[in-house]
Amino acid sequence: MITRFPPEPNGYPHIGHAKAAIINEEYAKMYKGKLILRFDDTNPLKERIEYYDAILSGLNWLEVKPDLIKNTSDDMKMLYDYAKILIKNDGAYVCKCKQEEIKENRRLGIACKCRGRDIDRTMIEWDKMFNEYKENQAILRFKGDLSSDNTTMRDPTLFRIIDAEHPKQGKRYRVWPTYDFAAPIEDSIDNVTHAMRSKEYELRNDLYYAILDRLGLRKPLVIEFSRLEFDGMPVSKRMLKPLIEAKKVQGWDDPRLPTLLALKRRGILPSSIREFVLSLGFTKADTKPPFTKLEAINRKILDPISIRLFFVKDPIKMKIDDMPSMISIRLKNHPDKDLGYREIKLDNELYISSDDLCNLKIGDEIRLLELFNVKIDSIDGIIHAKYTGNELKQIPRIQWVSKGVEINVLVAKQLYLDNKFNENSLEVIKGYAEEYVDRLENGSRVQFVRFGFCILDEARKFILTHK
RNA sequence: GCUCCGGUGGUGUAGUCCGGUUAAGCAUAGCGGCCUCUCGAGCCGUUGAUCCCGGGUUCAAAUCCCGGCCGGAGCACCA
Q: What separation in angstroms does the CA of A206 have from each of A1, A158, A262, A451?
Protein backbone atom coordinates (compact mmCIF):
# COMPACT_ATOMS: atom_id res chain seq x y z
CA MET A 1 0.00 0.00 0.00
CA ILE A 2 1.30 3.40 -0.97
CA THR A 3 -0.49 6.59 0.00
CA ARG A 4 0.31 10.18 -0.53
CA PHE A 5 -0.27 13.58 1.00
CA PRO A 6 -0.19 16.23 -1.73
CA PRO A 7 -0.46 19.75 -0.29
CA GLU A 8 -0.01 22.84 -2.39
CA PRO A 9 2.62 25.04 -0.74
CA ASN A 10 0.38 28.07 -0.79
CA GLY A 11 -0.17 28.73 2.89
CA TYR A 12 0.36 27.62 6.43
CA PRO A 13 -0.74 24.11 7.29
CA HIS A 14 -3.81 23.77 9.48
CA ILE A 15 -5.90 21.12 11.15
CA GLY A 16 -7.32 20.10 7.77
CA HIS A 17 -3.86 19.31 6.46
CA ALA A 18 -3.20 17.40 9.66
CA LYS A 19 -6.20 15.21 9.00
CA ALA A 20 -5.16 14.38 5.46
CA ALA A 21 -1.54 13.76 6.39
CA ILE A 22 -2.33 11.63 9.42
CA ILE A 23 -4.96 9.53 7.68
CA ASN A 24 -2.62 8.82 4.81
CA GLU A 25 0.23 7.99 7.10
CA GLU A 26 -1.83 5.78 9.39
CA TYR A 27 -3.19 3.74 6.51
CA ALA A 28 0.25 3.28 5.04
CA LYS A 29 1.53 2.24 8.45
CA MET A 30 -1.35 -0.16 9.01
CA TYR A 31 -0.42 -2.12 5.91
CA LYS A 32 3.30 -1.61 6.21
CA GLY A 33 3.23 0.60 3.17
CA LYS A 34 4.77 3.91 2.31
CA LEU A 35 3.74 7.53 2.49
CA ILE A 36 4.73 10.04 -0.15
CA LEU A 37 4.73 13.74 0.57
CA ARG A 38 4.24 15.47 -2.73
CA PHE A 39 4.18 19.22 -3.04
CA ASP A 40 1.63 19.95 -5.71
CA ASP A 41 3.33 23.08 -6.87
CA THR A 42 2.01 23.66 -10.35
CA ASN A 43 0.76 27.20 -9.94
CA PRO A 44 3.73 29.56 -9.55
CA LEU A 45 1.35 32.41 -8.79
CA LYS A 46 0.47 30.91 -5.45
CA GLU A 47 3.45 29.04 -4.15
CA ARG A 48 6.23 30.27 -1.96
CA ILE A 49 9.32 28.70 -0.44
CA GLU A 50 8.12 29.86 2.95
CA TYR A 51 5.13 27.56 2.62
CA TYR A 52 7.10 24.48 1.60
CA ASP A 53 9.07 25.01 4.80
CA ALA A 54 5.99 25.66 6.90
CA ILE A 55 4.40 22.43 5.72
CA LEU A 56 7.58 20.49 6.30
CA SER A 57 7.96 21.75 9.85
CA GLY A 58 4.25 21.30 10.54
CA LEU A 59 4.50 17.68 9.50
CA ASN A 60 7.64 17.29 11.53
CA TRP A 61 5.84 18.62 14.58
CA LEU A 62 2.99 16.19 13.97
CA GLU A 63 5.54 13.43 13.69
CA VAL A 64 4.32 12.49 10.27
CA LYS A 65 7.27 10.91 8.52
CA PRO A 66 7.03 10.56 4.76
CA ASP A 67 9.09 7.86 3.10
CA LEU A 68 9.58 10.04 0.07
CA ILE A 69 9.35 13.77 -0.48
CA LYS A 70 8.97 15.18 -3.96
CA ASN A 71 7.64 18.11 -5.94
CA THR A 72 5.30 17.83 -8.86
CA SER A 73 7.28 20.63 -10.47
CA ASP A 74 10.30 18.33 -10.66
CA ASP A 75 8.37 16.17 -13.11
CA MET A 76 7.51 18.83 -15.66
CA LYS A 77 9.39 17.13 -18.47
CA MET A 78 7.51 13.94 -17.85
CA LEU A 79 4.22 15.76 -17.65
CA TYR A 80 4.96 17.37 -21.02
CA ASP A 81 5.68 13.96 -22.46
CA TYR A 82 2.34 12.67 -21.28
CA ALA A 83 0.65 15.72 -22.72
CA LYS A 84 2.14 14.86 -26.08
CA ILE A 85 1.01 11.28 -25.81
CA LEU A 86 -2.46 12.49 -24.99
CA ILE A 87 -2.46 14.78 -28.00
CA LYS A 88 -1.27 11.98 -30.25
CA ASN A 89 -4.07 9.79 -28.92
CA ASP A 90 -6.48 12.54 -29.92
CA GLY A 91 -7.21 13.10 -26.25
CA ALA A 92 -6.45 16.80 -26.03
CA TYR A 93 -6.49 19.97 -28.08
CA VAL A 94 -5.22 23.51 -27.83
CA CYS A 95 -8.03 25.97 -27.35
CA LYS A 96 -7.55 29.62 -28.21
CA CYS A 97 -11.02 30.84 -27.35
CA LYS A 98 -11.67 33.62 -24.90
CA GLN A 99 -12.14 32.59 -21.34
CA GLU A 100 -15.75 33.76 -21.21
CA GLU A 101 -16.47 31.89 -24.40
CA ILE A 102 -15.03 28.70 -23.03
CA LYS A 103 -17.03 29.08 -19.88
CA GLU A 104 -20.23 29.65 -21.76
CA ASN A 105 -19.62 26.74 -24.11
CA ARG A 106 -18.96 24.46 -21.21
CA ARG A 107 -22.15 25.56 -19.57
CA LEU A 108 -24.06 24.92 -22.77
CA GLY A 109 -22.15 21.76 -23.51
CA ILE A 110 -21.03 22.74 -27.00
CA ALA A 111 -17.69 22.42 -28.77
CA CYS A 112 -15.67 25.22 -30.28
CA LYS A 113 -13.75 25.08 -33.56
CA CYS A 114 -10.46 24.43 -31.79
CA ARG A 115 -11.67 20.99 -30.84
CA GLY A 116 -11.83 19.88 -34.45
CA ARG A 117 -8.22 20.58 -35.37
CA ASP A 118 -6.24 17.58 -36.50
CA ILE A 119 -3.53 16.08 -34.38
CA ASP A 120 -0.55 17.41 -36.30
CA ARG A 121 -1.91 20.90 -36.15
CA THR A 122 -2.61 20.55 -32.46
CA MET A 123 0.97 19.49 -31.96
CA ILE A 124 2.13 22.67 -33.63
CA GLU A 125 -0.21 24.74 -31.50
CA TRP A 126 1.08 22.97 -28.41
CA ASP A 127 4.63 23.96 -29.30
CA LYS A 128 3.50 27.52 -29.75
CA MET A 129 2.25 27.59 -26.20
CA PHE A 130 5.85 27.36 -25.08
CA ASN A 131 7.26 30.26 -27.03
CA GLU A 132 4.71 32.18 -28.98
CA TYR A 133 1.40 32.48 -27.22
CA LYS A 134 0.98 34.71 -24.25
CA GLU A 135 -0.85 34.08 -21.04
CA ASN A 136 -4.56 33.55 -21.57
CA GLN A 137 -4.11 33.08 -25.31
CA ALA A 138 -4.12 29.33 -25.40
CA ILE A 139 -4.70 26.36 -23.15
CA LEU A 140 -4.52 22.64 -23.61
CA ARG A 141 -7.88 21.03 -23.01
CA PHE A 142 -8.89 17.46 -22.42
CA LYS A 143 -11.21 15.91 -24.96
CA GLY A 144 -13.84 14.82 -22.53
CA ASP A 145 -17.53 14.72 -22.96
CA LEU A 146 -19.10 18.11 -23.54
CA SER A 147 -22.55 16.75 -22.86
CA SER A 148 -21.68 15.01 -19.63
CA ASP A 149 -23.79 15.76 -16.57
CA ASN A 150 -20.56 15.95 -14.69
CA THR A 151 -19.31 19.37 -15.66
CA THR A 152 -15.72 18.54 -14.81
CA MET A 153 -15.76 16.23 -17.83
CA ARG A 154 -16.63 19.05 -20.22
CA ASP A 155 -13.15 19.46 -21.70
CA PRO A 156 -11.31 20.76 -18.66
CA THR A 157 -8.03 22.64 -18.80
CA LEU A 158 -4.91 20.53 -18.68
CA PHE A 159 -2.20 23.13 -19.21
CA ARG A 160 -2.13 26.90 -19.13
CA ILE A 161 0.53 29.56 -19.60
CA ILE A 162 1.82 31.32 -16.50
CA ASP A 163 4.90 33.52 -16.79
CA ALA A 164 5.41 34.06 -13.06
CA GLU A 165 8.59 32.91 -11.41
CA HIS A 166 8.26 29.59 -9.64
CA PRO A 167 9.81 29.28 -6.16
CA LYS A 168 11.65 26.06 -7.06
CA GLN A 169 11.89 26.16 -10.84
CA GLY A 170 12.43 29.84 -11.42
CA LYS A 171 11.68 30.85 -15.00
CA ARG A 172 12.41 27.43 -16.42
CA TYR A 173 8.80 26.73 -17.37
CA ARG A 174 5.82 28.73 -18.35
CA VAL A 175 3.39 26.09 -19.48
CA TRP A 176 1.99 24.66 -16.27
CA PRO A 177 -0.24 21.64 -15.78
CA THR A 178 -3.40 21.91 -13.75
CA TYR A 179 -4.11 19.74 -10.75
CA ASP A 180 -6.54 17.70 -12.83
CA PHE A 181 -3.77 16.61 -15.17
CA ALA A 182 -0.84 16.34 -12.80
CA ALA A 183 -2.45 14.56 -9.87
CA PRO A 184 -3.56 11.34 -11.57
CA ILE A 185 -0.29 10.97 -13.43
CA GLU A 186 1.84 11.65 -10.38
CA ASP A 187 -0.20 9.21 -8.32
CA SER A 188 0.00 6.58 -11.00
CA ILE A 189 3.71 6.74 -11.75
CA ASP A 190 4.57 6.88 -8.06
CA ASN A 191 2.69 3.62 -7.59
CA VAL A 192 0.20 5.15 -5.22
CA THR A 193 -2.37 2.49 -4.49
CA HIS A 194 -4.85 4.51 -2.46
CA ALA A 195 -5.32 8.16 -3.27
CA MET A 196 -7.25 9.72 -0.42
CA ARG A 197 -8.48 13.25 -0.86
CA SER A 198 -11.12 15.38 0.75
CA LYS A 199 -14.51 15.14 -0.81
CA GLU A 200 -14.70 18.41 -2.65
CA TYR A 201 -12.77 16.53 -5.33
CA GLU A 202 -15.37 13.84 -5.63
CA LEU A 203 -16.77 15.02 -8.97
CA ARG A 204 -13.29 14.92 -10.43
CA ASN A 205 -12.95 11.17 -10.05
CA ASP A 206 -14.37 10.54 -13.52
CA LEU A 207 -11.79 12.89 -14.97
CA TYR A 208 -8.98 11.39 -12.93
CA TYR A 209 -9.72 7.94 -14.27
CA ALA A 210 -10.45 9.16 -17.80
CA ILE A 211 -7.01 10.73 -18.06
CA LEU A 212 -5.26 7.61 -16.87
CA ASP A 213 -7.38 5.56 -19.23
CA ARG A 214 -6.38 7.57 -22.28
CA LEU A 215 -2.77 7.39 -21.23
CA GLY A 216 -2.94 3.70 -20.50
CA LEU A 217 -1.63 4.22 -16.99
CA ARG A 218 -2.30 2.19 -13.88
CA LYS A 219 -5.20 3.48 -11.83
CA PRO A 220 -4.96 4.06 -8.10
CA LEU A 221 -8.08 3.72 -6.00
CA VAL A 222 -9.42 7.15 -5.19
CA ILE A 223 -11.18 7.48 -1.85
CA GLU A 224 -12.53 10.59 -0.27
CA PHE A 225 -13.21 11.83 3.22
CA SER A 226 -14.92 14.88 4.66
CA ARG A 227 -13.06 18.08 5.32
CA LEU A 228 -12.18 18.93 8.86
CA GLU A 229 -13.02 22.28 10.30
CA PHE A 230 -14.06 23.44 13.73
CA ASP A 231 -17.22 25.34 14.40
CA GLY A 232 -16.51 29.07 14.34
CA MET A 233 -12.89 28.43 13.46
CA PRO A 234 -12.58 28.59 9.68
CA VAL A 235 -9.62 27.11 7.94
CA SER A 236 -9.71 28.94 4.64
CA LYS A 237 -7.21 31.61 3.74
CA ARG A 238 -10.10 33.59 2.37
CA MET A 239 -11.48 33.96 5.89
CA LEU A 240 -8.20 34.16 7.80
CA LYS A 241 -5.96 36.34 5.71
CA PRO A 242 -8.10 39.48 6.00
CA LEU A 243 -8.05 39.13 9.78
CA ILE A 244 -4.28 39.01 9.78
CA GLU A 245 -3.92 41.90 7.38
CA ALA A 246 -6.32 43.99 9.42
CA LYS A 247 -4.38 42.99 12.53
CA LYS A 248 -7.51 41.57 14.09
CA VAL A 249 -5.45 38.55 14.97
CA GLN A 250 -1.75 38.63 15.72
CA GLY A 251 -0.50 36.35 12.97
CA TRP A 252 -0.66 32.79 11.71
CA ASP A 253 0.18 31.53 15.18
CA ASP A 254 -2.55 33.47 16.96
CA PRO A 255 -4.03 31.03 19.48
CA ARG A 256 -7.52 31.54 18.09
CA LEU A 257 -6.57 30.03 14.73
CA PRO A 258 -6.74 26.42 13.54
CA THR A 259 -3.26 26.51 12.04
CA LEU A 260 -0.73 24.02 13.32
CA LEU A 261 1.42 26.90 14.52
CA ALA A 262 -1.46 28.29 16.56
CA LEU A 263 -2.48 24.93 17.98
CA LYS A 264 1.08 24.33 19.04
CA ARG A 265 1.41 27.72 20.63
CA ARG A 266 -1.86 27.24 22.44
CA GLY A 267 -0.54 24.09 24.03
CA ILE A 268 -2.20 21.37 21.99
CA LEU A 269 0.08 18.35 21.68
CA PRO A 270 0.76 16.68 18.35
CA SER A 271 -0.25 13.32 19.79
CA SER A 272 -3.60 14.81 20.74
CA ILE A 273 -4.16 15.93 17.18
CA ARG A 274 -3.38 12.48 15.89
CA GLU A 275 -5.70 10.80 18.35
CA PHE A 276 -8.38 13.34 17.61
CA VAL A 277 -8.13 12.92 13.85
CA LEU A 278 -8.31 9.17 14.19
CA SER A 279 -11.33 9.41 16.47
CA LEU A 280 -13.15 11.22 13.68
CA GLY A 281 -13.04 8.13 11.55
CA PHE A 282 -12.99 7.87 7.80
CA THR A 283 -16.32 9.24 6.76
CA LYS A 284 -17.84 11.46 4.13
CA ALA A 285 -20.45 12.89 6.45
CA ASP A 286 -19.93 16.60 6.75
CA THR A 287 -19.72 17.61 10.36
CA LYS A 288 -17.90 20.12 12.42
CA PRO A 289 -16.57 18.40 15.51
CA PRO A 290 -16.48 20.54 18.63
CA PHE A 291 -13.10 21.89 19.64
CA THR A 292 -13.86 20.62 23.13
CA LYS A 293 -13.29 17.09 21.89
CA LEU A 294 -9.71 17.93 20.98
CA GLU A 295 -9.39 19.59 24.36
CA ALA A 296 -10.65 16.52 26.17
CA ILE A 297 -8.03 14.36 24.51
CA ASN A 298 -5.32 16.90 25.13
CA ARG A 299 -6.29 17.25 28.78
CA LYS A 300 -5.85 13.54 29.40
CA ILE A 301 -2.32 13.71 28.08
CA LEU A 302 -1.50 16.96 29.83
CA ASP A 303 -2.90 16.07 33.23
CA PRO A 304 -0.12 13.75 34.42
CA ILE A 305 2.69 15.98 33.18
CA SER A 306 1.52 19.44 34.18
CA ILE A 307 2.63 20.88 37.47
CA ARG A 308 -0.06 22.46 39.62
CA LEU A 309 0.35 26.07 40.62
CA PHE A 310 -1.88 28.65 42.17
CA PHE A 311 -3.16 31.62 40.23
CA VAL A 312 -5.76 34.12 41.38
CA LYS A 313 -7.68 36.11 38.85
CA ASP A 314 -8.43 39.72 39.80
CA PRO A 315 -6.63 39.40 43.13
CA ILE A 316 -7.89 40.88 46.34
CA LYS A 317 -5.78 41.15 49.46
CA MET A 318 -6.54 39.14 52.56
CA LYS A 319 -5.01 39.92 55.96
CA ILE A 320 -5.00 37.10 58.44
CA ASP A 321 -5.22 37.56 62.19
CA ASP A 322 -3.96 35.09 64.72
CA MET A 323 -1.96 33.39 62.03
CA PRO A 324 0.33 30.65 63.28
CA SER A 325 3.95 31.55 62.81
CA MET A 326 4.90 30.04 59.50
CA ILE A 327 7.68 31.33 57.31
CA SER A 328 7.04 29.14 54.36
CA ILE A 329 5.28 26.07 53.17
CA ARG A 330 6.40 23.30 50.86
CA LEU A 331 3.87 22.12 48.32
CA LYS A 332 3.78 19.18 45.93
CA ASN A 333 3.79 20.12 42.28
CA HIS A 334 1.38 17.35 41.41
CA PRO A 335 -1.19 15.50 43.51
CA ASP A 336 -0.01 12.01 42.57
CA LYS A 337 2.86 12.22 40.10
CA ASP A 338 6.36 12.92 41.28
CA LEU A 339 6.94 16.31 39.75
CA GLY A 340 8.84 17.83 42.63
CA TYR A 341 8.07 20.45 45.21
CA ARG A 342 8.12 24.17 45.59
CA GLU A 343 8.57 26.42 48.58
CA ILE A 344 6.22 29.34 49.13
CA LYS A 345 7.10 32.17 51.50
CA LEU A 346 4.36 33.29 53.82
CA ASP A 347 3.40 36.20 56.01
CA ASN A 348 0.03 37.29 57.22
CA GLU A 349 -1.02 38.73 53.87
CA LEU A 350 -2.04 36.88 50.78
CA TYR A 351 -4.38 37.15 47.81
CA ILE A 352 -7.47 35.34 46.70
CA SER A 353 -9.53 35.75 43.56
CA SER A 354 -12.40 38.20 43.40
CA ASP A 355 -14.35 35.47 41.66
CA ASP A 356 -14.21 33.41 44.83
CA LEU A 357 -14.92 36.36 47.04
CA CYS A 358 -18.22 36.85 45.21
CA ASN A 359 -19.47 33.62 46.72
CA LEU A 360 -18.44 34.58 50.24
CA LYS A 361 -19.87 36.72 52.96
CA ILE A 362 -18.76 37.84 56.36
CA GLY A 363 -18.70 35.02 58.82
CA ASP A 364 -18.02 32.31 56.21
CA GLU A 365 -15.27 29.86 56.89
CA ILE A 366 -13.13 28.73 53.98
CA ARG A 367 -10.17 26.48 53.41
CA LEU A 368 -7.10 27.97 51.80
CA LEU A 369 -5.94 24.98 49.80
CA GLU A 370 -3.00 23.13 51.31
CA LEU A 371 -2.78 25.78 54.02
CA PHE A 372 -5.39 26.21 56.74
CA ASN A 373 -8.90 27.45 57.44
CA VAL A 374 -9.92 31.05 57.97
CA LYS A 375 -13.12 32.87 58.81
CA ILE A 376 -14.01 36.11 57.05
CA ASP A 377 -14.23 38.99 59.51
CA SER A 378 -14.72 41.97 57.27
CA ILE A 379 -14.55 43.01 53.64
CA ASP A 380 -13.73 46.59 52.81
CA GLY A 381 -11.26 46.94 49.99
CA ILE A 382 -9.26 44.21 51.60
CA ILE A 383 -10.42 41.14 53.42
CA HIS A 384 -9.74 40.61 57.08
CA ALA A 385 -9.87 37.01 58.12
CA LYS A 386 -9.05 35.02 61.20
CA TYR A 387 -7.17 31.76 61.41
CA THR A 388 -9.50 29.01 62.61
CA GLY A 389 -7.43 25.88 62.49
CA ASN A 390 -5.99 23.25 60.29
CA GLU A 391 -8.57 20.54 60.26
CA LEU A 392 -9.95 19.41 56.87
CA LYS A 393 -13.64 20.22 56.77
CA GLN A 394 -16.39 20.32 54.22
CA ILE A 395 -16.06 24.02 53.51
CA PRO A 396 -15.24 25.81 50.26
CA ARG A 397 -11.64 25.28 49.26
CA ILE A 398 -9.99 27.97 47.24
CA GLN A 399 -6.55 28.71 45.92
CA TRP A 400 -4.46 31.65 47.06
CA VAL A 401 -1.21 33.37 46.25
CA SER A 402 1.38 34.77 48.60
CA LYS A 403 3.97 37.21 47.31
CA GLY A 404 2.92 36.48 43.77
CA VAL A 405 3.86 38.07 40.51
CA GLU A 406 1.44 39.66 38.12
CA ILE A 407 0.78 37.68 34.97
CA ASN A 408 -1.52 37.84 31.95
CA VAL A 409 -3.41 34.89 30.66
CA LEU A 410 -4.68 34.94 27.09
CA VAL A 411 -7.95 33.15 26.59
CA ALA A 412 -8.94 32.28 23.03
CA LYS A 413 -12.65 32.29 22.33
CA GLN A 414 -14.50 31.34 19.22
CA LEU A 415 -13.13 33.36 16.30
CA TYR A 416 -16.35 33.64 14.36
CA LEU A 417 -19.83 33.93 15.78
CA ASP A 418 -22.75 33.76 13.37
CA ASN A 419 -20.29 34.08 10.50
CA LYS A 420 -18.98 37.35 11.84
CA PHE A 421 -15.60 37.99 13.37
CA ASN A 422 -15.94 37.92 17.14
CA GLU A 423 -14.36 41.15 18.32
CA ASN A 424 -14.06 39.71 21.81
CA SER A 425 -12.45 36.48 20.72
CA LEU A 426 -9.30 37.12 22.72
CA GLU A 427 -9.67 37.82 26.40
CA VAL A 428 -6.77 38.88 28.58
CA ILE A 429 -7.10 37.89 32.20
CA LYS A 430 -4.86 39.51 34.78
CA GLY A 431 -3.97 38.10 38.13
CA TYR A 432 -1.26 36.95 40.46
CA ALA A 433 0.53 33.68 40.12
CA GLU A 434 3.06 32.10 42.44
CA GLU A 435 6.53 33.50 41.89
CA TYR A 436 7.54 29.99 40.86
CA VAL A 437 6.32 30.89 37.36
CA ASP A 438 9.42 32.98 36.88
CA ARG A 439 11.50 29.83 37.05
CA LEU A 440 9.66 28.18 34.17
CA GLU A 441 10.91 28.11 30.65
CA ASN A 442 8.79 29.31 27.77
CA GLY A 443 6.60 26.50 26.57
CA SER A 444 6.20 25.03 30.04
CA ARG A 445 2.78 23.63 30.78
CA VAL A 446 1.06 24.12 34.08
CA GLN A 447 -2.35 23.67 35.52
CA PHE A 448 -3.46 26.68 37.48
CA VAL A 449 -5.59 24.99 40.08
CA ARG A 450 -9.30 25.54 39.62
CA PHE A 451 -8.54 27.69 36.60
CA GLY A 452 -7.21 25.56 33.79
CA PHE A 453 -4.24 24.22 31.85
CA CYS A 454 -1.96 26.94 30.57
CA ILE A 455 1.25 27.23 28.63
CA LEU A 456 3.91 29.84 29.25
CA ASP A 457 4.14 31.90 26.08
CA GLU A 458 6.71 34.43 27.23
CA ALA A 459 7.75 35.91 30.57
CA ARG A 460 4.69 36.46 32.73
CA LYS A 461 2.35 35.75 29.86
CA PHE A 462 0.42 32.51 29.64
CA ILE A 463 -2.08 31.17 27.15
CA LEU A 464 -5.01 29.15 28.43
CA THR A 465 -4.83 25.81 26.66
CA HIS A 466 -8.21 24.73 28.00
CA LYS A 467 -9.91 24.10 31.32
C1' G B 1 -30.50 25.77 -11.75
C1' C B 2 -27.81 21.15 -12.92
C1' U B 3 -24.76 17.06 -10.99
C1' C B 4 -22.73 14.39 -7.03
C1' C B 5 -22.28 13.11 -1.83
C1' G B 6 -24.10 12.71 3.02
C1' G B 7 -28.19 12.28 7.25
C1' U B 8 -26.95 7.01 13.77
C1' G B 9 -28.33 9.78 21.44
C1' G B 10 -26.72 17.31 22.76
C1' U B 11 -21.97 16.57 19.94
C1' G B 12 -18.24 13.38 17.20
C1' U B 13 -18.40 8.52 15.57
C1' A B 14 -18.63 2.44 15.12
C1' G B 15 -21.81 -0.73 12.68
C1' U B 16 -24.29 0.00 6.46
C1' C B 17 -20.42 -2.99 1.15
C1' C B 18 -21.37 -9.45 2.74
C1' G B 19 -29.63 -7.64 6.21
C1' G B 20 -30.18 -11.73 11.89
C1' U B 21 -26.97 -13.59 19.46
C1' U B 22 -26.04 -5.33 20.29
C1' A B 23 -33.37 -3.30 19.12
C1' A B 24 -27.35 -0.26 18.59
C1' G B 25 -20.73 -0.18 20.71
C1' C B 26 -17.17 3.92 21.84
C1' A B 27 -15.89 8.91 22.96
C1' U B 28 -17.28 13.75 24.41
C1' A B 29 -20.86 16.76 26.77
C1' G B 30 -24.84 16.32 30.80
C1' C B 31 -26.15 14.39 35.58
C1' G B 32 -24.72 11.99 40.38
C1' G B 33 -21.05 10.24 43.75
C1' C B 34 -15.85 9.87 45.50
C1' C B 35 -11.26 12.43 46.50
C1' U B 36 -5.25 10.79 51.01
C1' C B 37 -6.85 19.41 50.37
C1' U B 38 -8.53 21.39 42.60
C1' C B 39 -17.47 20.50 44.00
C1' G B 40 -13.36 24.17 36.78
C1' A B 41 -8.65 18.62 37.17
C1' G B 42 -8.75 13.36 38.39
C1' C B 43 -11.48 8.71 39.68
C1' C B 44 -16.22 5.93 39.72
C1' G B 45 -21.21 5.48 38.32
C1' U B 46 -25.35 7.02 35.29
C1' U B 47 -29.20 9.37 31.96
C1' G B 48 -29.52 9.97 26.71
C1' A B 49 -30.70 7.35 19.66
C1' U B 50 -36.75 2.78 17.63
C1' C B 51 -30.58 4.51 13.57
C1' C B 52 -34.04 11.88 8.81
C1' C B 53 -39.39 10.69 7.09
C1' G B 54 -42.82 7.48 4.26
C1' G B 55 -43.49 3.11 1.61
C1' G B 56 -41.60 -1.66 -0.28
C1' U B 57 -38.68 -6.50 -0.32
C1' U B 58 -37.83 -10.36 3.62
C1' C B 59 -39.22 -15.06 8.57
C1' A B 60 -35.86 -10.77 9.80
C1' A B 61 -33.48 -3.92 7.84
C1' A B 62 -29.81 1.25 10.79
C1' U B 63 -28.12 -2.23 7.08
C1' C B 64 -31.31 -3.84 0.38
C1' C B 65 -35.08 -1.01 -3.17
C1' C B 66 -38.32 3.34 -4.31
C1' G B 67 -40.13 8.29 -3.11
C1' G B 68 -39.60 12.61 -0.14
C1' C B 69 -37.29 16.10 3.31
C1' C B 70 -32.87 18.37 5.17
C1' G B 71 -27.55 19.44 4.88
C1' G B 72 -22.90 19.82 2.15
C1' A B 73 -19.84 19.97 -2.19
C1' G B 74 -18.73 20.84 -7.43
C1' C B 75 -20.02 23.49 -11.89
C1' A B 76 -11.95 27.96 -12.56
C1' C B 77 -6.62 29.00 -17.60
C1' C B 78 -6.97 27.13 -7.99
C1' A B 79 -5.49 22.90 -5.61
A: 22, 15, 37, 53
